[in-house]
Amino acid sequence: MDYLPLFVELKNRPVLLVGGGDIAARKASLLLRAGAELTVVSPTLCSELQQCYSQQKLIWVAKEYYPQLLDNVFLVIAATNSDKLNERIFQDANQRQKLVNVVDDQPRCSFIFPSIIDRSPVVVAISSAGKAPVLVRLLREKLEALLPSSLGKMATIAGRWRNKVKHNLHTMTERRRFWEKSFNGRFASLVANGKIIEAESQLELQLKQQDSAGELTLVGAGPGDPGLLTLKGLQVLQNADVVLYDYLVSDEILDLVRRDADKICVGKRAGLHSVSQEQTNLLIVQLAQQGKKVVRLKGGDPFIFGRGGEELQVAAEANIPFQVVPGITAAIGATAYAGIPLTHREYSQSVTFITGHCRENGADLDWPALAKGHQTLAIYMGTVKSAFISQQLIKYGRDAQTPVAVIGCGTRHNQQVITGTLGELESLAQQAPTPALLVIGEVTALHHQIGWFGQSATAETLRSAVLELA
Ligand SMILES: C[S@@+](CC[C@H](N)C(=O)[O-])C[C@H]1O[C@@H](n2cnc3c(N)ncnc32)[C@H](O)[C@@H]1O
User: Sorting pLDDT into bands at 50, 70 and 90, what band is 270?
Assistant: First the structure.
């Protein structure tokens, strides 16, 4: 090991920082966060340090460095732009057995600053002993994404409860189990949702061993690109006992589920093995009642044509605690990747999300309102009824020449955007890969100018491709 990691208490300890520029300011801010009694030595100060000085957060020695300044300090940091001066500070500090760090100059450091993830009181420090700083940065980004921002709050509450738990649970094993269950379970979710009083009641219940409830989390997986899953969604997936997922959830997202979790497909698809909504509801209740953390993972957003509301109603009736992590719905994700802004100052002042699963006579949709111009229609599950949809809109006044786009497999590597007119909607929809979203309105023409992802086609190019094949 090149360096021994230590966490040093700096509160009210004298620390010397030599240098008054931006780099010194970055170190100053870190040292002040740790409560150091900071003295900055430099003839001038940058504006940030100036501000700290005027707020009396630090002592300023407005002179050149001299070695006696080291006499009473706990540690020293050199952040000047003079190599010679930095070397001198390093030598002086070593002579006096003081810990010294010359910024960005690892050979002249008897201690180094690790890269940190601060969820105080939990702090994660990473270092490569100065050998691979970019690798450390990448690792830090990954950990930042995995560690919920509520971690600090959770640790603070745990600190408050430590003695009480010790008093009630007499063996180390009992206490370990208690905390493992808390940090992985309902207590953690309640803290993350800002419900601190309920979180402490949960600890109380667990202490009395009266808690056996699992919980349900609805998670929106987004339209396909795993990069569109939210951070919170990822954290929940990494903590699940069992994940019930739909066909629409991409394999890349399923790969992000905790390795030991059970994954159960509860998809509904015409012609393929399907699980009915009632069976899914029953499964959710049964698994949660066994004390499991159940994640219901849905394509897009759980509340947009996803039956998420119904599943929560079932959970509420069975007294199962629940929470929702929203996702990027197909209409938002697929159009963004297709370069189709849903609203635009010139072309569209509103957008409506519609299901194409309307009744045969279409009586459940307000066609005259939907046929008005200057608006965008995003139609989910519209492929099968595309002929009927286009007839209705034209019948109630929308121009048959209105530009439309059908986005198949939006945000996925095989995304295809097929553009044409409202009159051609049926043939466009039939040629798009599924799942597909129908988008109607002038904004779809912008795809030709600002489309940036995947493949594009028009009714015409598709027609000539078919002719060529024939
Ligand atoms: C049952 S709905 C679920 C919608 C989902 N909850 C959401 O918020 O996106 C399924 C329909 O969403 C649309 N859809 C879902 N993912 C899509 C994608 N990647 N590209 C295009 N359309 C998609 C299709 O119209 C599909 O038939």
Answer: low
Name the domain boundary from 113, 139, 160.
Answer: 113
- Rounded Cα distance, 438 and 175, in Å: 55
Query: 462 C-alpha to center of ligand 1: Å?
Result: 23
> Nearest to residue 316, comparing CAs of 290, 291, 292, 288?
288
Active site residues: 246, 268
Is residue 268 scored above 80 in pLDDT? no
Q: Which domain holds residue 299?
A: 215-328
For a ligand 1 pocket test, name from 219, 228, 248 the mutation site with the most ligand atoms within 8 angstroms of its C-beta.
248
Contacting residues for 420 by C-beta, under 8 A, at least 6 apart = 403, 404, 427, 428, 458, 459
Tell me how far the alpha carbon of residue 415 lies from the centroid of ligand 1, in angstroms: 13
Give the largest Cα separation in the chain, rounded: 91
Can you give the CATH number for the domain in which 195 is found? Answer: 1.10.8
CA 398 to CA 415: how far, in whole Å?
28
Q: Is 198 exposed, middle or buried (0-12, 13-18, 19+ CB in 10 A)?
A: middle
Check whether residue 289 and residue 370 sit in a common domain: no
